[in-house]
Amino acid sequence: MTRKKKTKxxxxxxxxxxxxxxxxxSSNKVFNYKQIAAKLNITDTSGRNQIIKTIKKLKAxxxxxxxxxxQYKVIGSTEYFTGILDLTARGQGYVICEDFEEDIFVPNNxxxxxxxxxxxxxxxxxxxxNNRPEGEIxxxxxxxKTEFVGVLQIQKNFGFVVVSNQKMYTDIFVPKNKMNxxxxxDKVIVEIEDWPARADSxxxxxxxxxxxxxxxxTEIHSILAEYGLPYEFPAHVEKYAKKxxxxxxxxxxxxxxxxxxxxxxxxxxxxxxxxDDALSFQTLENGNYEIGIHIADVSHYVKPGSILDEEAxxxxxxxxxxxxxxxxxxxxxxxxxxxxxxxEEKYTFSAIFEINxxxxxxxxxxxxxxxxxxxxxxxxxxxxxxxxxxxxxxADISITGKAYKVDKAIVEATLKLDELAKIMxxxxxxxxxISFDKVEVRxxxxxxxxxxxxxxxxxxxxxxxxxxFMLLANxxxxxxxxxxxxxxxxxxxxxxxxxxxxxxxxxxxxSRFGYSLNLKSRKTTTSSLNQLLEDVxxxxxxxxxxxxxxxxxxxAKYTTDNIGHYGLAFDYYSHFTSPIRxxxxxxxxxxxxxxxxxxxxxxxxxxxxxxEHSSNMEGLAARAERDSTKYMxxxxxxxxxxxxxxxxxxxxTEWGIYIEIIDNKCEGMVSIRDIKDDYYTFNxxxxxxxxxxxxxxxxxxxxxxxxxxxxxxxxxxxxFNLIGKRVEVEA
Length: 731
Hints:
Distance between the termini: 39 Å
Oligomer: single chain
Number of helices: 18
Function: 3'-5' exoribonuclease that releases 5'-nucleoside monophosphates and is involved in maturation of structured RNAs.
Largest sheet: 7 strands, mixed
Domain S1 motif: 642-723
InterPro entries: CSD, CSD2, NA-bd_OB-fold, RNase_B_OB_dom, RNase_II/R, RNase_II/R_CS, RNase_II/RNase_R, RNase_R
Catalytic activity: Exonucleolytic cleavage in the 3'- to 5'-direction to yield nucleoside 5'-phosphates
Shape: globular
Helix content: 25-40%
Family: Belongs to the RNR ribonuclease family. RNase R subfamily.
């Protein structure tokens, strides 16, 4: 199979990089500044002057040479390149390099001590068979990481750490004097200190003992450690946060728009501890509505350059594991001063709109405010108001456990907000937004964090109400800068159009279930995608197709270079509404206030680097969250080893089939070696395993019966025994 170049999550190249890439990709050609300008579609005088300056800089740095007057060519060997190493679980490597359309294959014996994610120099040659690029790593420019999680195995005078990560192809040697009291069998964090040229394994030191494998806290802390995510704040950061003045001051109120007398309330999950957004509502004399989206003013407390700001930036996001939240900000802020709790005055940053009955925005205002939340609702409570149009909250829904009546003004506000949200959502869908309402798995946990039940989080009207107004604020804030002051540096949340090849693969898979996509245009693509997502609701294959559809999309990311948001069908979009848990929102607040005060454009390069860091940390957090869900699913299945489950085949590979249980969404694998009734081979085109003698087929989407063969909490593996196809067993 041809491995296509991966879409990387970094920023677009700056002018220097762009020009250098042109020279590198045509290393034997000579260019003048006009030819470079034409390739970059730069026609204005200012842009051409920038090109001339950049070419002179590249010449001074000896990256290019002037072979004739005004004619330039790249210097150096064209066989050596730099890129990022991506290892497979089987120990083969691919280097992702800007200079090649395809990733460069690196055999295991040519890795030369490079590890997954490292930035490397690679010598590239062609493979004889198919002329595709193959290479040998000649230098490690920068290690992606030096700390790893694994289990210590002690010999007489030394030990080895067997690393948990499947992409780590070597153990790490630890001398006896560098074990730091770790015991045989402990799960540890080990740091690589050296890798001598003749040594088979790198040498390391144990920096932290996590505990015994299989214990709950050990495994959760291991997940965080694998991605370099902290699970507690340094003492000096906690101390700094506790010394902050969190009181509401009269002098500060004078600088803000006072909204304390306007009806304001929050709607959040039942178990939420931090409330970073609130809605205010009032009917104006002209019959229109003034609706405020009020966001915790985190930037009032978290000042640029402070140790609190540095810690928040490094974390970049809160991490939501199954049994705990690892917050971006210390609790004194996240659950205290910056949480819009009921019956408390708070500093907020607000987007306030005048909206008519057609949900059209007539006027907008952005700025710092002071607010007072009159009421806190759980989504379930707001849902009761929407469904009954009444004011009675029953005891089994109430967050207090007692039945109560809601003030009439809040009921009327909730119903009107719901009505407007539905109009806005309908308009958004008509404009080409994609409705990903993927089912989210949640666990009921006992006091020891053991899973005792599984339930699914679903989006109802109350959730969608909040979502629409958050989208409105995010969109309008982005457009306020991007549309009216396009020259100003700003943080955008962008989402590129999906890759046509991925959509084609999705089309092939869903056709086996009787579904289809119309890929003729952007409009038909989004319309048919939405129809697909609607059609699969409630079906056994829903979760699998939802997942595959999401994977066919590009990844959203943060950048200063706006291209719009494909999935939401917005030309301008940002993140403004969750600064307690996302650092980009803090940056957006700061930039917005800076420009409201008449400030000059911020440094685009500095903010682009911060965007890239935030996007990367968001990815790490998402992977940690998925790992914690997988861990909890395996823990849940440990107590159900004697049961039969109906599942759907969610993946097919040459080594086996993946099966997702329909009732609880737990996914495990059946090894091809364990299917005993025939010798099975992998048919890539059919997404199936096919029996050689019986011609029996196990195909993507088939419903099968399984039971649990093995659960491994340490490796996070769940293995099933295949009982057979559902129809065969029933017959």
